[in-house]
Amino acid sequence: MTAPHHIERGAGPAVVFLHGIGGDGASWLMELEALAGHWRAIAWDMPGYGASPALPEMTFPALADALDALLDSLDIDRAHLIGHSIGGMVAQEFAATFPHRVASLVLYATSPAFGRPDGDWQREFLAARLAPLDAGRRMADLAPSIVAGLVGGEPDPDGVARATAAMARVPEDAYRAAMRCLVTFDRREALPEIAVPVLVLAGAEDDNAPARMMERMASRIPGADFQLIAGAGHLAHFERPAAFRAAIVSFLDGVTARREREAAR
User: Fold this and answer.
1) Which of 251, 237, 240, 249 is nearest to 29 (CA)?
2) What is the CATH number of the domain that holds 197?
3) Are strands 40-44 and 6-9 parallel, antiparallel or unpaired?
4) Cα–Cα distance between 259 and 251 in angstroms, integer?
5) What angle is formed at CA 186 by the lines to CA 181 and CA 192, rounded to 5 degrees?
6) Pairwise CA distance, residues 245 & 54, whole Å
7) In a domain, 119, yes or no
8) What tens digit of pLDDT does each residue of 185-205 get?
9) In a domain, 1, yes or no
């Protein structure tokens, strides 16, 4: 398999950012720069996005294989994964399939399941999300209203502009494929098997991955930490960038300190 395209900054332990349906590798640039002093910070273009070739069919097992190919291409044995929304689902799929390659997980604004691909709710969800494209509108036309529906009450204006630009860049075919893939996800039974440090990170005003649901998710993962970002909706890294970066840096530093203590025993 051809490895997906990626952006990289810094050197040190590998941290890989996995974007959501409305993002790409470039949407993590501020986070890559923030971590570059101590970490090898990497953001992929999910297959079909940015400069990454599309998969014959976008499925979660195929996405996990693509991430495995990326780590191979970069000579990375184990990585800290930070997954947003569908990227958090990819991280869960990867952790279930390749647990030996995962150093820690940040599951951010995501869920352990989306339901059955043959369910009525899923069909209605897909029809509603894809109807504007079916009617001939473009992603650039839809981006402002999609982003407005994802953020909390007082988002950072510059972050909203960056989120809107990222959404506008999403290829229509990739958006359609990701939406069809999204409704197939269910890794609820794998949560108790996760054996690495985990941070479950939620936006307090997120209606897509509600904090209450994410707190229940965290309770099923042994030893997981749950943290809330006040004022944020589904796009906390755009809406509350300083709070988001502080949360992930604190978590990663804590994982490192814990491993150093264990190694010293």
Assistant:
1) 237
2) 3.40.50.1820
3) antiparallel
4) 12
5) 145
6) 30
7) yes
8) 999 999 999 999 999 999 999
9) no
